[in-house]
Amino acid sequence: MKSIAISRNYELLVALRMSGFEGIFCKDVHSLKMEFKDILKQNQIGIILLSEDDFQEMREEVFEAKKKKRGPLIVTLPGRGGFKEQDFILKYVKEAVGLKLDR
């Protein structure tokens, strides 16, 4: 299984490539969504890395991909200052699983 990062953030891709990940730079949201759909079709991809900004642009597509029984693990990476949204993880679990977690 391979891991791949897709992003509109060039600096993030450079850092991930230096760490050994493959990466695809997308210049706009449309190309980001197209690359995401193409990667989902590839059986050898095990992990897809997305920045938080890119995840926010493709929230519906990501959740649709996660609803499928089999598919790659989709990981959201925070920016330099951490996650922009407070309680990002709690919201993510609530949307993905349907459970409300108390702090």
Automatic annotation (TrEMBL):
Q: Name one Pfam family in it.
A: ATP-synt_F
Q: Which InterPro entries match?
A: ATPase_V1-cplx_f_g_su (IPR008218), ATPase_V1_fsu_sf (IPR036906)
Q: Which UniProt keywords apply?
A: Hydrolase, Ion transport, Transport
The EC number(s) attached to this protein equal 3.6.3.14
Superkingdom per UniProt: Bacteria
Which GO molecular function annotation, any one, does this entry have?
Answer: proton-transporting ATPase activity, rotational mechanism
| Family label | Belongs to the V-ATPase F subunit family.
Supply the name of the protein: V-type sodium ATP synthase subunit F
